[in-house]
Amino acid sequence: MSGARGDESGDTPSAALFASLWPGDAARRREFLRSAAGEVLTFADVREHSARLAHALVALGVRPGDRVVVQVDKSVLAVLLYWAVLRVGAVYVPLNSAYTAAELGYFLADAEPALFVCAAGRFEALQGQRPHLRLPAVATLGAGPLAKP
Questions:
Q1: Predicted TM-score (pTM) of this structure
Q2: How many percent of the chain have pLDDT more than 70?
Q3: pLDDT tens per residue across span 72-125
Q4: Given this model, what pLDDT does residue 130 score?
Q5: Which residues contact 100 (CB under 8 A, 6 or more apart)?
Q6: Helix H segments across the chain?
Q7: How many alpha carbons lie under 13 Å from residue 28 in its C-beta half-sphere?
Q8: How many CB atoms lie within 10 A of CB 138?
Q9: 120 near 132, Cβ under 8 Å?
Q10: Burial, 21: exposed, middle or buried (Cβ in 10 Å; 0-12, 13-18, 19+)?
Q11: Do residues 40 and 33 lie in contact, with contact meaning Cβ atoms separated by under 8 Å?
């Protein structure tokens, strides 16, 4: 995977930015994030898990400059997805999880995303509306290629 698609060793602007945000090897075991439930991720964990998710995004057709619309609840996995989108060089477009179907349709039409990522319950509700919403791809956070590491 080249730098444009999730590996910070490449020579793209997104790869250089991503690499500049991370501490050196000695600090990789430092705590990056602690959830309310006590789950702890180190810088190394976030780097590894976001790389895996970045590869999954590329496999789902996301390319640098694409928009990824995300409508999920706050979670550790949502933070990892955010970093994965940045690694790909795509644009992360968060949507409030309380939006109605009509509001969601408006934002999706306006954003023209390459991928819409949502929670499992939302995914099932959208399947009947998918042709109307003109989504090229829909993925569920926490399942399939975007499953929790």
A1: 0.80
A2: 71
A3: 999 999 999 999 999 999 999 999 988 887 888 888 889 999 999 998 777 666
A4: 63
A5: none
A6: 13-20, 43-59, 76-88, 101-111, 120-126, 130-133
A7: 9
A8: 19
A9: no
A10: exposed
A11: yes
- Tokens representing 100 are 């109605």
> In the sheet that 67-71 helps form, which strands lie side by side, from edge to edge?
91-94, 67-71, 115-118, 138-140
Gap between the Cα atoms of 121 and 126, Å rounded: 9
pLDDT given at position 83? 93
Cα 61 from Cα 136, distance rounded (Å):
9
116 to 96, 104, 145, 147: CA distances (angstroms): 13, 11, 13, 15
Structure tokens at 106: 């408006």
Nearest to 83 by CA among 35, 116, 51: 51
In angstroms, rounded to a whole number, what is the distance separating the alpha carbons of residues 92 and 85?
6
Taking 3-state DSSP, the helix, strand and coil percentages for the chain, each rounded to the nearest 5, stand at: 45, 15, 40
- Res. 54: pLDDT tops 50: yes
